[in-house]
Design brief:
Largest interface: A-B, 30 and 27 residues
Largest sheet of chain B: 5 strands, antiparallel
Shape of chain B: globular
Strand content of chain A: 15-25%
Number of strands of chain B: 5
Distance between the termini of chain B: 23 Å
CATH superfamily of the largest domain in chain A: Sulfite Reductase Hemoprotein, domain 1
Radius of gyration of chain A: 23 Å
Number of domains of chain A: 4
Largest sheet of chain A: 6 strands, mixed
Order of helices and strands of chain B: EEEHEEHHH
Number of helices of chain A: 18
Helix content of chain A: 25-40%
Radius of gyration of chain B: 13 Å
Strand order of the largest sheet of chain B: 3-2-1-4-5
Oligomer: heterodimer
Structural class of chain B: alpha+beta
CATH class of the largest domain in chain A: Alpha Beta
C-alpha cells in the first residue's frame, strides 16, 4: 500500500485549508458560483439532484481498514449512513452539504485520502486488477506501477488541463479484471523476449457517446521506460486533442482520426525527443515497491480441513465458495469476493455498519487489505482457507455474502436519474428488478457468467457498452426508455456491444432479459457462456425473441 | 402553471419559492399562472447568489386536483430517489407526496434544459 510522506501530508493540509477558505468566500459571494464551480469540482464536489455529491479517490481500489472505517464515519456523520462504490473504484457520497465538505476532506487527509483529481480534465484514479498481489496469475504486482503512476500524475503541472479527462488501467495477468481496453491508456504487463518485464500499451479506449476498444500501439515497452512513453502519449494528446469540442476531446477520437499507426508514429517521435530523463529511477521504483513489502503470509498446507468440512456440511457456504472464492498464490490462502449486489439492493451501495464490519474482517483475516472492483464489489484478498467459513458467516449476517459474483444478478448500475444531474433515466431500479427476477441462485448458477451493465445516460458510467447485456436509459419523447445491447465485454475479449433493436419501455426490460436468457439456454452448447452463444449465433435469435410481438 | 425551484447553496437541498422565501416542501410552493409574475420571481431568485444556485421555473399539471411537476426529473427532485423510498423529501409522506409518487408520464425538464443551455 502507498504511504504518504510529510510532503504529501503538508500538501493535503494546505489544499484543504485553501478549499475551506474558498467555501467561506463563496458563502459570502466573494467568489461567484461561476468562479466557484471549477474549484469545487477540482475537489471532487458536484451538485447533483438532491444534494452535493463528493467523489473520493480510492487509489487503484486499495483500502486499509482505517480508511474504510473513516469512510464509514463520513457516511454516518455527513451522509445518510451509506456510500456508493463506483465503476472507477472510487466512493461517492450523495447527500453532502457544502458547509461540511471541508471538514470531510480534513477527515480524509487523516487517513491519507482525498478527493482531488476525481473530476476535471486531468489524469484520474488508476484502475488495477483487484486481485493484485494475491493471484498467482500475475507477472508482477500491478499496484507498484499504479502507485508510481499516482505519484507521477498527481498535480502534474503539464497534465492538469488536458483536453478532457484521462483514465489509465494496469493489469499484470492474462485475465483482465480491470476493463483495461476501455481506458484512455491500458497497460498489460508482459515479459519480453529476454525475460525482462514490460508493458503492452493500448491507447484510445473509452465508452460514452463514441465507444472504442483501445488498440495496441506498442507491443512491448520495457518497464524501465514506461514513464517517458506515458509522457510522450500525453504530450501528443495534450497538443492535438480537440479542445474545441468536448464531445470529440477524448484521446480515443484523436487515435481514431489519426489512425493507430500515425498516432503511434507521433508518440514514438515524441518519445525519441524526451529520452530517458523522464523515466522512473530504479531507486525510486525500489522505494515505491518497498511500500508493498512482502506480506507476512503464514506457511500453511495447500488445503484446509476446516474449509473442506464446511464446504461439505453447508450448501450455502459451498455455493459461496463456487462463486465468490478464488485461488491465492500463497498455499493455504484464498481471495474472497464480497458482493455488494444483495438481491433487490442498490448495486455498489454499502452501509456504514457494513463498511465497519468489512474493515474489521480485513484487519483480522485479510492482512488489513480491502479492494474495490470496477464491478462495484469488494474483495478481501488474503484470507486463510481456515478462516473462510468464519468470514463467510460474518458477511452473511450483514447481508454481504450473496453468492452471485459474475452471475446475472451481479449487475453494474450507475446512480442514474435517482441521483445524477446528467442522467436521462433511472438505472438502479432496473438492476433491482432484474436481480429480483433472477433471485433463485440455482437458476443463476445454471445460467452462469452473464454480465449486465446499466447506464442512465450515454456517458456510460455503468459501462453498458461492454455488458454481455448492456442497458442504456434514454429519454424517448419524455419517457424513460431502455436500449439493449448484446455482445459487449470489458474483459480480455473486449468488445463493444451491438444494439438489439428499438428501445423498450421500463416495464418491458426485465421480461426482455428473461427472453434473452431463455434463448441462450435453448441455444447454448457445452461450456458456452451467454457471450459465447451470442457470438456463435449472432443477434437474430435474440432479436426475434424480444421483438416477436412487434412483428 | 409553474413553480420556481433551485438548490440551496449551503447544503444543496432542493427548494421552492414561496412569496419571497425559499422553502423545502413542494406542497408549499407558490404556483404561478401568470408568466410575467413567474419570471419576476425567477429574476428575484437569481439575484440571491448567497442563498441558492441553479434557479429555474418548472412546468406543472393538475393531477386530480394536486399540482404536479410535468417532468419526471422534477418529481424525483421533489420526492427523493426511488431506489430507497425512505430517503429525501418523500420520507415525510402526506397527500402531495403520494400524488407525486403516483403521477405517471414524464417529460423533459424544460426549465432545466434552459439552465443547461445557459
Amino acid at each position: 500500500m502507498y504511504r504518504y510522506d510529510e510532503i504529501d501530508k503538508q500538501f493535503l493540509a494546505d489544499r484543504t485549508a485553501e478549499f475551506r477558505g474558498q467555501v467561506e468566500r463563496r458563502l459570502i459571494n466573494e467568489i461567484t458560483e461561476e468562479q466557484f464551480k471549477p474549484i469545487r469540482l477540482m475537489n471532487g464536489l458536484y451538485l447533483q439532484l438532491h444534494a452535493y455529491m463528493l467523489r473520493i479517490a480510492i487509489p487503484y481500489g486499495s483500502l486499509r481498514s482505517r480508511q474504510l472505517r473513516m469512510l464509514a464515519e463520513i457516511a454516518r456523520t455527513h451522509d445518510k449512513g451509506y456510500g456508493h462504490f463506483t465503476t472507477r473504484t472510487n466512493m461517492q457520497f450523495h447527500w453532502i452539504k457544502l458547509r461540511e465538505a471541508p471538514d470531510i476532506i480534513d477527515k480524509l487527509a487523516t487517513v491519507d485520502m482525498h478527493s482531488i483529481q476525481t473530476s476535471g480534465n486531468c489524469i484520474r484514479n488508476t484502475t488495477a486488477d483487484p486481485h493484485a498481489g494475491a493471484t498467482a496469475e500475475e507477472l508482477d504486482d500491478p499496484r507498484v506501477w499504479c502507485e508510481a503512476v499516482r505519484q507521477w500524475s498527481s498535480v502534474h503541472p503539464e497534465f492538469s488541463f488536458l483536453p478532457r479527462k484521462f483514465k489509465i488501467a494496469i493489469v499484470a495477468s492474462l485475465k483482465d479484471r480491470a476493463a483495461v481496453r476501455i481506458h484512455d491508456i491500458g497497460l498489460y504487463m508482459r515479459r519480453g523476449r529476454n525475460g525482462d518485464l514490460g508493458f503492452e500499451v493500448a491507447v484510445g479506449g473509452g465508452l460514452g457517446r463514441t465507444p472504442y476498444v483501445a488498440p495496441t500501439i506498442r507491443q512491448f515497452i520495457p518497464a524501465a521506460r514506461l514513464f517517458s512513453y506515458l509522457e510522450a502519449i500525453l504530450r501528443v494528446y495534450n497538443r492535438y486533442g480537440r479542445r474545441d469540442n468536448s464531445f470529440k476531446a477524448r484521446i480515443k477520437i484523436l487515435v481514431a482520426s489519426l489512425g493507430v499507426e500515425e498516432f503511434a508514429r507521433q508518440v514514438e517521435a515524441e518519445w525519441e525527443k524526451i529520452g530517458e530523463g523522464s523515466d522512473l529511477p530504479d531507486t525510486e521504483l525500489a522505494r515505491i515497491r518497498g511500500a508493498f513489502t512482502p506480506l507476512p503470509f503464514e506457511t500453511l498446507p495447500a488445503s484446509s480441513s476446516a474449509f473442506e468440512e464446511a464446504r461439505l456440511a453447508d450448501p450455502a457456504f459451498a455455493r459461496f465458495v463456487r462463486n465468490n472464492v478464488h485461488p491465492h498464490k500463497q498455499p493455504g490462502y484464498a481471495i474472497v469476493d464480497v458482493s455488494l449486489k444483495a438481491i433487490g439492493e442498490t448495486p455498489g451501495d454499502c452501509s456504514a455498519e457494513q463498511m465497519d464490519l468489512i474493515a474489521d474482517l480485513a484487519e483480522r483475516y485479510s492482512l488489513d487489505d480491502v479492494r474495490v472492483t470496477h464491478e462495484q464489489n469488494l474483495v478481501l484478498p488474503h484470507v486463510r482457507l481456515d478462516d473462510v467459513p468464519t468470514v463467510h458467516a460474518a458477511l452473511a449476517a450483514a447481508g454481504l455474502a450473496t453468492p452471485n459474483v459474475n452471475l446475472i444478478s451481479d449487475i453494474i448500475a450507475c446512480p442514474g436519474l435517482d441521483y445524477c444531474a446528467l442522467a436521462n433515466a433511472r438505472a438502479i431500479p432496473i438492476a433491482q428488478h432484474i436481480a429480483e427476477r433472477f433471485a433463485d441462485q440455482d437458476r443463476a448458477e445454471l445460467i452462469g457468467e452473464l454480465k449486465i451493465k446499466i447506464s442512465g445516460c450515454i456517458n456510460a458510467c455503468g459501462h453498458h457498452h461492454v455488458g454481455h447485456i448492456g442497458i442504456l436509459g434514454v429519454d424517448k419523447k419524455g419517457e424513460e426508455f431502455y436500449q439493449l445491447t448484446l455482445g459487449g465485454s470489458g474483459a480480455e475479449d473486449a468488445e463493444v456491444g451491438k444494439i438489439l433493436g428499438p428501445a423498450l419501455p421500463e416495464n418491458r426490460v426485465t421480461d426482455a432479459i428473461e427472453q434473452l436468457v431463455e434463448v441462450y439456454l435453448r441455444e447454448r452448447q457445452d461450456g458456452e457462456r451467454f457471450l459465447d452463444t451470442y457470438r456463435r449465433t449472432g443477434m437474430a435469435p435474440f432479436k426475434e425473441a424480444v421483438y416477436a410481438d412487434v412483428h | 402553471m409553474k413553480a420556481l425551484t433551485a438548490n440551496r447553496l449551503i447544503d444543496g437541498e432542493v427548494v421552492f419559492w414561496r412569496k419571497g422565501e425559499w422553502i423545502e416542501r413542494f406542497a408549499d410552493a407558490e404556483l404561478f399562472d401568470d408568466p410575467a409574475v413567474a419570471e419576476a420571481a425567477e429574476a428575484h431568485g437569481k439575484n440571491q447568489p448567497t442563498v441558492v444556485v441553479d434557479v429555474y421555473l418548472i412546468d406543472l399539471v393538475d393531477a386530480d386536483g394536486i399540482p404536479t411537476p410535468v417532468s419526471y426529473r422534477e418529481r424525483l427532485r421533489a420526492l427523493g430517489p426511488t431506489n430507497p423510498r425512505q430517503h429525501g423529501k418523500q420520507a415525510e409522506g402526506g397527500k402531495v407526496i403520494a400524488a407525486l409518487a403516483q403521477a405517471s408520464g414524464a417529460a423533459r425538464s424544460t426549465g432545466r434544459v434552459n439552465l443547461i443551455k445557459r
